[in-house]
Amino acid sequence: MSTPEQTDPASPTASPLLVALDVDGTIVHHDGHLAARVARAVRALDDLPHVTVVIATGRSVLSTRPVMEALGLDTTGRPAVCSNGAVTIAATPGQGEGYEVVDLVTFDPAPAIALVHTHLPTALVAVEEVGVGFKVSTPFPPGELWGEERVVPVEELTARPATRVTFREPTLSSEDFTALVERIGLHGVSYAVGYSAWLDLAPEGVSKASALEIVRRRLGIEPHRTVAVGDQRNDLEMLHWAAVGYAMGQAPEEVLRIADRTTGSVEEDGLADALDEVLAELA
After folding, report:
1. Which of 65, 120, 201, 275 is spaced 20 to 30 Å from 52 by Cα?
2. pLDDT over 90 for what percent of the chain?
3. Of all residues in the chain, what percent are helix, strand and coil, respectively (each to 5)?
4. Full-model pTM
5. Chain centroid to CA 51
6. Are residues 194 and 174 in contact, defined by beta-carbon separation less than 8 angstroms?
7. Does 8 reside within a domain?
8. Of 78, 55, 76, whose CA–CA distance to 67 is shortest?
9. Angle at the Cα of 59 (from 262 to 45), degrees rounded to 5?
10. What is the average per-residue pLDDT within 68-93?
């Protein structure tokens, strides 16, 4: 991948820069803790008039917006990529629900739910309802899903097109889920295995990268002026898409391999170090 040319941040002709950031394991710890040093680094970079920081996460809209607010990114018109690329919003603080959906991609969840359930009948299933919460087969552990959680029959889980389906099986590891997907095959969907016992399905061809490419074009930013930071398998496409992709230090080996650069772990405030580099070298 090419490296963006250095630009004087003080120059009025500084070239626009898009910086895409994952949330869990990158901006915040997996317990939701946001380090003050990380928050300062995000704000310092976003304060530059030619830099746009965009959240790109597997989180739902409802759980993304508090992170935007905490970082001062909840500004009018700012895009955020949610649900692993299936939902893109623009912030509208002070108006309505505080956001509007600008892109939404769905798929028929029935075949994938039936296939996974055949091979993993004990798995919990959640189907996202954008801006509301989730329809679930069985209640998830407390604190794992944001918004309303409605227990419904499997027929209702599969009755309508969905942006995302999540499978949760606490007895399995991420490696077990990866092996399961490779064994059974999943067609007509994109998938990402979480850092723990999660499997997220999205519409085929949809990823953080596909959504960010649309955002990049709308903002009029050149491809070589893109940076991304992430830590998990659902960040692979995004790190490959970016001109400069950073992997967090705790990332799995396959994520470390695809990244252009590696920073410290989330426990070491690695994002702050990465953004300090971006500020000094690329912004």
Report:
1. 201
2. 77
3. 35, 25, 40
4. 0.91
5. 19
6. yes
7. no
8. 55
9. 50
10. 97
